[in-house]
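To: structure desk
From: M.T.
Subject: fold request, one chain
Message: Could you run this one when you get a chance? Sequence is below, nothing fancy, just the single chain.
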Amino acid sequence: MCDTIVVVRPDGVMFAKNSDRDPNEAQFPQWYPASDHEPGSTVRCTYLEIPQVDHTHATLLSRPFWMWGAEIGANEHGVAIGNEAVFTNEPYADVGLTGMDMLRLALERSTSREQAIGVLVDLLESHGQGGGCGYEKRSFTYHNSFIVADREGATVLETAGENWATEEVTAGVRTISNGLTIPGFADEYRNRLRSRVSACDVRSRLTSLGSADAAVPGDLTTILRSHGSSDWPRYNVVNGTLSMPCMHGGGLVAGSSSTAGWVSDLAADTHWLTATSAQCLSLFKPMKISAPVDIGPEPGADPDERTLWWRHEQLARRVMTDPATLAPMFTTDRDRVEREWMADPPSGQVALEHHIELIDEWQRRVDGASADTDVRPWFARRYWNTRSPQ
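Reply: Done. Structure tokens follow.
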């Protein structure tokens, strides 16, 4: 489950997204250069092999480790796209392009949001959407919606099987979550039960209201870190933390955990990425498509302290046992560093290396805490105990 936000202002466009997926489904940034391809060549996506185009554009993607496609991304021409799972009353196909495949292909093949929308629609009509998209349960599938933004504005694209609708965003705030929203289209195709379980309407209200006065990227990082009306998560026995933008799993029936956060200032051609889970405990780091960063080894499903994602994950899982006690040991420092970066962004590589140093320092502080309690309800503790790799 996820949330995507776009803010269209006279002085520029800002885009933001949380990716919420299964807890051990590590996600990480990858840079891909512009490339030329031989006539007649193909590209292998997550499940389908389709014709390749003559030229693909440089991209920065946030990709779950086992997928070809990406949850979030931007390209060298200032196009940014976020993908959402949506639940409809149309049949789900066992095989097809995933929404993440479509997102990556659209970024690789477009120079504007209008062109990207055209690519997405053509892919939907030519190849169809489908295939398992869950990590824990690979058969889990859904349909997709997108916000496509560029420096001039944004477009919402929502789908239900082979059907689709668009809505232009020329000013103000627009958010999407895990339910169809375009009037008429949503009335016809929305699966109301599954959309309700996803708590998409609750989160959409939170992100819309919270972003109404957003003027700088830091305003959107605050929204992505939000736990709603509480400082820290309140767990629901059915769907865990699905009612808040910054998710921490925990439900017996449904549950997702935030695995990556992203904010784009398209006017400044700068993207702010956590490259980790738990936005509420992480640092948004400045990245540019023109300046790839050595992010280190790619993470997988198993803990690996050589990787940024799992290094931070070790800290986050400890802190979330008692966040009100443990998080204040470092979040003031985190906020100060991030404010300094927002005012005067360092290079992505410098920011990444400093974040790694800070994670190690914060881990030492937390490890030294005398408290060893877990304040979460029993069902949330069970959720995490069954998902903690040994």
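Reply (cont.): The first strand starts at residue 3 and ends at 9. Let me know if you need anything else for the meeting.
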